[in-house]
Amino acid sequence: MPYRAHRFLLSYLFVSLAGVLALSLALRAASGALGMGSADIGLALDALTEPLCLGVCLLGYALLVKKPERPRLNMRLPSVKQAVIVIAVVLASEPLMWFVGALSSMVFKNLTKSYIHDITRYPIVLGVFVACLIPAVCEETIMRGVVFSNYRGVDIRIAAVVNGLFFGLFHLNFQQASYAFALGIVLTFIVYYTDSLPAAMLAHFTINLFSVALSYAIPAPETPPDATWGEVIAFSRVAAVSAAMVFILLRLLARTRSGEALNAADPGGNGAQHPPETAAILSGLPDSAGRYNSPDTDPAGGGWPGDETLTPAGAPAPMPPENAEPAGRSSVSSYLNYIAAYAVPRRFRESGTPPRARWLTPSFFAVILVFGAICVLFELRL
């Protein structure tokens, strides 16, 4: 359920703050014996904080949430075709991310440049491990793993936007949050269409590797100048082409789902067998009357992991849950559905099934307020 995702994010934030404080005190106390400078302590914090804090939070999550109620994290590896498309999506999105980041750097200070500059002082293997591999595994496990899996039953378009918003604020600075928001949406659709968390890890690793490798190949000054308005405006056309290419590639990635992750023999890619009539429904193909059924309710992992219901094509829609909006009453979710009505291929749209999970809860606003307040504090401090 979404509220579990919200509580997990808040828990991770507080555990991370406590972990950074404890690790920094321990490293500073041992810095004399280990011969570590301030830059070395910062690198060690980056390498240790995320894995340790994530391990603590995952352990608590596993202990507090019962296994039948705990959505699974699909670690199925993407196919070669899907992996190639995922890398193409990442490369195509680079100009768009640069444009959004440059636009936000007009208002907020860019902390990523100085961080990458500090990383290049160390061997490239260590830099790739700290700046690429650790964030790809840990952040994707949190955002597209625990958070996204708990948003099952929420429309994919809303889930993607919310996940991108959380992913942006997760970086705790507004400049990086701008392009991380756009990247989070793209990564969410990658996981949704491939039903593979490692696919998002691959994408995240690739986009970080591109930046780190470029910094090692072309050393930048410690305080590189920010982009000018003229450069940003001139680059806007390239960003528009980049956005169009990402959209087309994501649609192409969506086509691989019905042929691979939702094939008749193993719709979830995890060894679950289904009878022919059920497999036909899960395939996302139209029935004899030409009607589409949403594959989002595949209990074997074709759509939202952990879903327990399956609506056959042409069957009457199930009764709405207790927390669903009353008939005739609009909601924020319904407006977002209309805005993004054509952003997802037809076979992935809802088939008249009412929302089964309420995401706009007090815990949602708590995440926004707490993470947003910390971003403001960092911005004022700088």
Could you explain the architecture of this structure?
With 382 residues, the protein is mostly helical. The chain has one domain (2-261, 360-381). Helix content is 64%, strand content 0%. It has twelve helices and no strands. Helix 6 (156-170) runs antiparallel to helix 7 (174-194). The longest helix has 33 residues, at 2-34. The chain is globular, with a radius of gyration of 22 Å.
Describe the structure concisely.
The chain has 382 residues and is mainly alpha-helical. It has helices at residues 2-34, 38-64, 80-104, 112-119, 124-149, 156-170, 174-194, 197-217, 229-261, 276-282, 332-339, 362-381. The model is unreliable at 259-330 and 338-356 (pLDDT under 50).
How are the SSEs ordered, and which strands pair?
Layout lengths: L1 H33 L3 H27 L15 H25 L7 H8 L4 H26 L6 H15 L3 H21 L2 H21 L11 H33 L14 H7 L49 H8 L22 H20 L1
Helix pairs in contact: 1-2, 1-5, 1-12, 2-5, 3-7, 3-8, 3-9, 5-6, 5-8, 6-7, 7-8, 7-9
Shape: globular
Termini gap: 37 Å
User: What's the order of the H and E elements?
Assistant: HHHHHHHHHHHH
Radius of gyration: 22 Å
Q: How many DSSP helices? A: 12
Beta-strand proportion: under 5%
The figure for the number of domains is 1
Main sheet summary: none
Helix content: 55-70%
Q: Identify low-pLDDT runs.
A: 259-330, 338-356
User: Tally of extended strands?
Assistant: 0
Write out key terms for the chains shown.
mainly alpha, globular, 382 residues
